[in-house]
Amino acid sequence: MLTDTQKDKWHKDGYVRLERFFDPLAVERISSFVDNVSRWDVSDNKWMLWFEKTTDNRKITSKAENFLDFHDPLRNLLLEDQRITSCVEELLDEESRRLKELLIFHYPDSGGYRPHQDIYHIPHKLSDRMVHAVVAIGIDDSDPDNGGLFFSPGNHKKGVFPMDAGGVIDPAVAETFYWEPISWKAGDVFIFDDYAPHYSRPNKSNRSRRTLYLVFQRASTGGPSRAEYNVLKRALNAPEGKVADLDNLKPPNGIFYRD
């Protein structure tokens, strides 16, 4: 499914954008399904939801995990034709297994994410690398003005950079990187290696930047299964409980910031 140019981009920079992967009708359906997920009640044993407080003291949905098992139409639309899995396996050059899914809503006046790498075994002290390819599905157009991502090309080949306890790359190190702004249109797919450093700014625009992430492991990995991951996630970075009011939101980790 991928061209040699796209595969070369992946290996050289650690990421690649696939334009117009989903047609406008599919994007419209995905957007509607995601709006539905954003209105779900919190759950103690199914999907996971987190919230954040805006500058004018409103509560907005920040992110969601483990929702595809509870939304058949969305899961089928994304995964049934195997196109995404095929692309991932071409890039990894082996079979894969899906570890998790994540929705970042990034509504207007939402916070950003400081420079980091998606290597979950570092802050969580796990013995095995959990992630190998992250597929970002653009639900809205994304650019630096509405909190779009920045990546540092080629640094996925240099291992784990020094981090603080919250998983943020040492600012003195991150300041030495060249950062490339990443833009995409709704319906594009952007795939990146978990070692690729990246960050996003707070969304100060009036446009949402909703992105759905599908996270894959190599089939040969020794990392946790999808079910094991969800247990770890609830234990190590628990979602909001039954009461998710403004004064009792979960404290953000070091990656999240608002200023």
What labels describe this entry?
about 20% helix; about 260 residues; 6 helices; 12 strands; single chain; five-stranded antiparallel beta sheet; seven-stranded antiparallel beta sheet
Q: Please, could you describe this protein's structure?
A:
- This protein is of the alpha+beta class and 259 residues long.
- 22% of the residues lie in helices and 23% in strands.
- A seven-stranded antiparallel beta sheet has the order 1-9-6-11-4-3-2.
- The model has no long low-confidence stretch (mean pLDDT 92).
- It comes from Mesorhizobium album.
Percent range of helical residues = 10-25%
Compute the separation of the termini in Å: 41 Å
Uncertain runs with pLDDT below 50, 5 residues or more? Answer: none
Shape: globular
Query: What percentage of the residues does DSSP assign to strands (E)?
Result: 15-25%
**Global mean pLDDT:** 92
Keywords: Dioxygenase, Oxidoreductase
Cofactor: Fe(2+)
InterPro entries: Phytyl_CoA_dOase-like (IPR008775)
Protein name: Phytanoyl-CoA dioxygenase family protein
